[in-house]
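Can't paste images in this forum, so I'm doing it all in text. The chain is below; anyone willing to post the predicted structure tokens underneath?
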Amino acid sequence: MAAALNLPAAGGGGMGDCKHKDCHDLHLCKLVKRDDFEQVRKLVKDAAFICKKCGRAAREKDNLCDPSRI
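Text version of the structure:
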């Protein structure tokens, strides 16, 4: 049985505790802040991972700060 995710309230997603600081510019939280929604749409299609930090979902775990398989 999968463990429950303790997701933060909406509005999270800063780099403070990102596990991948060297590629953070490719993460959904950063792309949303830059209003790059065309790129966001491509990355969230057929999402397979959810970020335990901000609750966003993406197809690839590399686009999330603290990914967990859905």
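The chain has a mean pLDDT of 78. The longest strand covers residues 49-51.
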